[in-house]
């Protein structure tokens, strides 16, 4: 097999490119955030969870066995396999299969067996604030949609100096996925910070994106007789 260096992966395929580098960048960023936050405060389970000796209340609790299964098996078994088979490169090459199986051996044990056979002193573990988790997820999803759409628009000009009908990804459903993605980003920000300032900023962005998407959509329909009729302006299937 000809070696392909990781930094040139998927250059001709924007979806796979962003899935790959999205996870890679996210991985480095999360590594740094985890290092800093865990140096400041230990991860909130076992002896450092919510208990009488721990002054830090980490929020609502769930069963500890379930907590470890969610944190380890969902990303490392389910998500890993989905990305591996849907977006991987050379999924069936023996080298990749061997390392995929080694990973799965570790995480099927760690996520699905280990949490259910251990003898924990505490039956529960704190879940953390769902607003924080949902907010970050929304922000990351919105960011990926926004960057993908902007890049796609940029690439349209490579072949053609005028305007063309964009297609692919969310462009098949809405005229302005770049605005839609950014709206999701700021929605995530507002949920995560749970602040009036965040909500005000989200409303301000919507006040730009909704009219602009409406104008863009109308413009596309007037300009191109063959503009896909089922395509919406800003929100898939809705508006
Ligand atoms: N936070 C906020 O309040 C806010 C407000 C506005 C925008 N933004 C963000 O800024 C970014 C850019 O927004 P924008 O309003 O400038 O986007 P846009 O109007 O869609 O234009 C983006 C670029 O793509 C080109 N383009 C658009 N449609 C095309 C088509 N059908 N065929 C070929 N080229 C096309 C445009 O060319 P032309 O310049 O020739 O039209 C422009 O270079 C987005 O990510 C948006 O979310 C944020």
How would you explain this protein's 3D organization?
The structure is a single chain. The chain has 239 residues and is mostly helical. It has two domains: 6-126, no CATH class; 130-223. The protein is 63% helix and 3% strand. It contains six helices and two strands. It has helices spanning 14-40, 64-87, 94-117, 130-159, 177-193, 196-223; strands at residues 61-63, 124-126. Strands 1-2 form a two-stranded antiparallel sheet. The protein starts with 13 loop residues before the first helix and ends in a 16-residue tail after the last helix. The structure holds NADP nicotinamide-adenine-dinucleotide phosphate. NADP nicotinamide-adenine-dinucleotide phosphate (NAP) is lined by residues 146, 150, 153, 156-157, 163-164, 166, 178-179, 182, 205, 208.
What is the string of helix and strand elements?
HEHHEHHH
- The share of residues in extended strands comes to under 5%
- Total number of distinct structural domains: 2
* Contiguous uncertain segments of 5+ residues: none
Give the averaged pLDDT, no decimals: 91
Helix/sheet category = mainly alpha
Helix share, percent: 55-70%
Give, in spatial order, the strands making up the sheet with the most strands.
Answer: 1-2
Count helical runs.
6
Radius of gyration computed on alpha carbons: 22 Å
Distance linking N and C termini: 48 Å
Oligomer: single chain
Q: Cofactors and ligands present? A: NADP nicotinamide-adenine-dinucleotide phosphate
Sheet with the most strands, sense and barrel status: 2 strands, antiparallel
